Structures are given as structure tokens and as C-alpha cells.
């Protein structure tokens, strides 16, 4: 029975199913253009680092807010979820998912039995650990790509900081790089949900069942 509930949630109520799958062309297009821009910049504009990073930050920011806007439009039009903030909010989407989940739990006569619900959440949470692979992949990729690059970058920055104006410029470059990294990690999180999909979705399901228990 728990496997039927897991399958129902994964195939019908997970964020991947409700959001990511519907905007995957935008997400992968954004990621691909970011990678192409990075390689092009290194080859063609390596002697103008500050302006390359500034333009990259602008382009990445535009892409980030386009995807954010697409998600907000999707939530409003398809799921009737209000979106009042600058960034998309999943609060009302979670309420939508909770109502759907409560219906399937009622179908199996589990919606009023907190003991059964707690046990179900515990079983699903433990089973999710059996599918957990994406976090290790993600940590490995981030360490492999960014630690040596960041180390070299910091060394280059300080070797160039011989006067005050260059120090200010270096600080500006570091801030832009940090913001670019934050944007890239946001996209990386979406991509890793695909690698770590089942584990991530099962943990979401267990958490929602716990919330339903608290409402009883």
C-alpha cells in the first residue's frame, strides 16, 4: 500500500512532475547557454576578466528571472496558486499537494489514524535512503569543478592587487563570481533532483505526511 502512495506522489504531485518537467526546456537551455558562454569567454576574452564576469552575471541574471517568471506563471495559471513576491513561492503549491495527498490517504482509510500516518512517514523516510545517490554526485562535481578553480582565482586576484584601485576591482570581481556561483548552484539543484529524483521525492512525501499528522 505504501508503494502505491509513493508511486502516486512521484508520478502526480512531486515538484519535478508539477514544475520542473513543464519547464525543462528552459532549465536545460539556460544551463547549456551558461556552459557555452563560460567556454567562449575563456577562449576569446581571457584578458578582460572583469567585463566578461559582469556580462556573464547580467546574462545569468536575465536567464534566472526568466525561469522564475515561467514558474510563477505556471503556478498561477495551472494550479491557481497566488504569487505575490519577486521569487516564486511554493507555499500554496504545497497546500494544493496536501489536499491531493489527503484524498489518496482517505481512499486507503489512513487519513484519521495518526499512528498509521507516523509509521508510514517513517517507513517512506527510511526507504528513501536506499535511493540516495545524487547528493554524493553533486558534492563530488562541485568539489571537482569549483575548489581548484576558486583556489587559482583567489591566488590570481591577490597577485594583481598591488594598489587600492586594483583591490577595489578585485573585490568587485569576487562579488560577481559569488553571485554567479549562487545562480549556478540554483540550476545545479534542479538538475540534481533528476539524479537523486526518487530519494528526494520520497523525503518530500514523508515530510508532507508528517505535516498531515500535525494537523490531526
Could you characterize what this model shows?
The chain crosses the membrane at residues 26-43, 49-67, 136-158, 164-192. Keywords: Membrane, Transmembrane, Transmembrane helix. The protein has 216 residues and is mostly helical. The protein has one domain (2-215). The chain is 82% helix and 0% strand. The chain is built from 9 helices and no strands. Helix 3 (24-44) runs antiparallel to helix 4 and helix 6 runs antiparallel to helix 9.
* Number of DSSP E strands: 0
As a percent range, the share of helical residues equals over 70%
- The number of helices is 9
Terminal CA distance: 21 Å
User: Please, what is the oligomeric state?
Assistant: single chain
Average the pLDDT over all residues and give the rounded result. Answer: 76
Structural class computed from helices and strand pairing = mainly alpha
Radius of gyration: 22 Å
- Can you write the helix and strand succession as a string? HHHHHHHHH
| Whole-number total of structural domains | 1
Shape from CA axes? elongated
Uncertain spans: none
Beta-strand residue percentage: under 5%
Main sheet, how many strands, which sense, barrel?
none
Amino acid at each position: 500500500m505504501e508503494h502505491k502512495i509513493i508511486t502516486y506522489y512521484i508520478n502526480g504531485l512531486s515538484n519535478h512532475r508539477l514544475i520542473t518537467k513543464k519547464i525543462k526546456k528552459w532549465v536545460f537551455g539556460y544551463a547549456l547557454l551558461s556552459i557555452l558562454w563560460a567556454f567562449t569567454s575563456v577562449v576569446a576574452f581571457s584578458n578582460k576578466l572583469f567585463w566578461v564576469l559582469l556580462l556573464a552575471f547580467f546574462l545569468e541574471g536575465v536567464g534566472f528571472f526568466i525561469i522564475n517568471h515561467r514558474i510563477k506563471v505556471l503556478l498561477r495559471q495551472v494550479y491557481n496558486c497566488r504569487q505575490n513576491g519577486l521569487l516564486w513561492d511554493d507555499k500554496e503549491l504545497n497546500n494544493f499537494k496536501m489536499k491531493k495527498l489527503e484524498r489518496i490517504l482517505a481512499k486507503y482509510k489512513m487519513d484519521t489514524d495518526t499512528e498509521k500516518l507516523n509509521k508510514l512517514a517513517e517507513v517512506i523516510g527510511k526507504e528513501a535512503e536506499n535511493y540516495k545517490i545524487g547528493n554524493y554526485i553533486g558534492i563530488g562535481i562541485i568539489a571537482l569543478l569549483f575548489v581548484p578553480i576558486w583556489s587559482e582565482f583567489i591566488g590570481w586576484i591577490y597577485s594583481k592587487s598591488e594598489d587600492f584601485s586594483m583591490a577595489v576591482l578585485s573585490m568587485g570581481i569576487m562579488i560577481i563570481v559569488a553571485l554567479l556561483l549562487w545562480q549556478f548552484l540554483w540550476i545545479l539543484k534542479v538538475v540534481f533532483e533528476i539524479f537523486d529524483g526518487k530519494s528526494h521525492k520520497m523525503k518530500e512525501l514523508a515530510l508532507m505526511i508528517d505535516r498531515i499528522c500535525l494537523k490531526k
